[in-house]
Amino acid sequence: MATQRKKLIIDTDGGVDDAQAIFMMLDSTVYDVIGFTCVRGNSGVNQVVRNVLKILTAADKLSIPVYAGCAFSILGQHVIQNSYQGVDGLGDCQSAEEPDVSILQREAATDVIIRLTKEHPGEITLMCIGPLTNLATALKVDPDFSCRLRDCYIMGGNYYGKGNITVSAEFNFHADPEAAYIALEQLRCPTTLVGWEVCEENGPTWDQYHQLRSFSGKRNQFLKAIEQKPVAFSIKQGWNYSPADEFLAACMLSPSEVVMETKHVYATVELGGKLTYGQMVVDWNKVLKKEPNLTIVTKIDKDTFFTALLNTAKSDI
Ligand SMILES: [Ca+2]
């Protein structure tokens, strides 16, 4: 008898790395993606919705429902200054087919997350690959909802204070620090986090990147097109290829092969610092004497991660 796949909701801000991570999860035999909830992040939420529909068009998966979520941060901020992934948050790629937005579900993202956990208590995994505004809002509307989640996986934050958007903050947490704070303080289900440092340290080489994009297929060509702008910028800056959301996907899909080390710790988010606003703070030495709230992935097998990307690329020919 076939084993039932785990129900998965992907909460996304529809960026370039979100696209590849989504393709990885859609190929999974372990998870069944039952919905996408969109959140303001790499672009405004209306554009994020369009981006997610474009990603699902490339994957021929428009049958999976898509829901719009928070358009503002918890404190009401709308605009995010980050042009790395393009003005539209998806590489400003002109060739991607314009999606039919009329298929967007009418129910709000927060409502659907709460409703589905009531319909399937203990069965749903929530994967967060954008700012945590939808998650924090769900926790405010229904503080018990996370007790009904099977587990939660987050790409965001940093555990050694190394920033990628400010001197000390990671993009997803910095985009809504108060939401990240609420999420870490109030989640009541097993929660695993992949932070920025482990992504930066384990990215494939540029030669490996070009190998990935040498395959034909609709998804591969789509990724190649949307990555053109950020890849050109990274090469110009002398940076490595640094996927982010894909690391979380690989850790979820093949934990025993990809994850080499984790730490179970208490972590929170700095909300007061002039230079450290939005930085994740980890209590490594148990100074605060608080119960651990997070499992942080601190070491990844680089080669197995690349193999996961390669398998996703190869599955699309
Ligand atoms: Ca993202």
**Helicity range:** 25-40%
**How much beta, percentage-wise?**
15-25%
Distance between the termini: 29 Å
Hetero groups in this structure are:
calcium ion
CATH level-four homologous superfamily name: Ribonucleoside hydrolase-like
At CATH level 2, the architecture is: Alpha-Beta Complex
Spatial sequence of strands, sheet with the most strands: 3-2-1-4-5-6-10-7
Number of helices: 12
CATH topology: Inosine-uridine Nucleoside N-ribohydrolase, Chain A
How many domains? The number is 1
User: Average pLDDT, to the nearest integer?
Assistant: 95
- What is the radius of gyration? 18 Å
Give the C-level CATH assignment: Alpha Beta
User: In total, how many beta strands?
Assistant: 10
Largest sheet: 8 strands, mixed
Principal-axes geometry comes out as: globular
Q: Helix and strand succession?
A: EHEHEHEHEHHEHHHHHEEEEH
Secondary structure class reads alpha/beta
- Stretches where pLDDT is under 50 for at least 5 consecutive residues are none
Write the layout of secondary structure elements.
Elements: E1 6-12, H1 16-26, E2 31-38, H2 45-58, E3 66-68, H3 109-119, E4 124-129, H4 133-141, E5 149-155, H5 171-175, H6 177-186, E6 191-194, H7 196-201, H8 206-212, H9 218-237, H10 245-253, H11 255-258, E7 259-265, E8 267-269, E9 280-282, E10 294-300, H12 302-314
Parallel strand pairs: 1-2, 1-4, 2-3, 4-5, 5-6, 6-10
Antiparallel strand pairs: 7-10, 8-9
GO molecular function: hydrolase activity, hydrolyzing N-glycosyl compounds
InterPro entries: Inosine/uridine_hydrolase_dom, IUN_hydrolase, Ribo_hydro-like
Domain Inosine/uridine-preferring nucleoside hydrolase: 8-306
